[in-house]
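User: Quick sanity check before I run a bigger batch. Here is a single chain. Can you write out its predicted 3D structure?
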Amino acid sequence: MVHFTPEEKALVNSLWSKVNVEEAGGEALGRLLVVYPWTQRFFDSFGNMSSPSAIMGNPRVKAHGKKVLTSFGEAVKNMDNLKTAFAKLSELHCDKLHVDPENFKLLGNVLLIVLSSHFRKEFTPEVQAAWQKLVSGVATALAHKYH
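Assistant: Done. Predicted structure follows.
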């Protein structure tokens, strides 16, 4: 279980309140699919993903990215109980979708890059550390069903 200090929670919540979920979610998932092309196999039904520009402009990638980041909002609300908050998603990704749990870590790291590019000055080392802790905790919670 991950423990967040009140300061870390405040840093995460402060930045999260400024995040455009639709924009950042689409960008994060798009970047994941471009940078780690083997992850595309989970999105065969998404249509044209023949190039980085096709992926980044794909409306289904953008929509699913928004969905992913919206569910990530649950992590922000449930920082003290990530395992429970993500239990159903862990089960879905393990039992039905068979997603490699390493992909959760990759997506978390890509999300940090997106946040850092969107909030350059506000994404201080302290903010980064709090968010790194959160994305690592979410990746562990999502991988829980695999163990």
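The CA atoms of residues 8 and 130 lie 5 Å apart.

User: Great, the batch can go ahead then.
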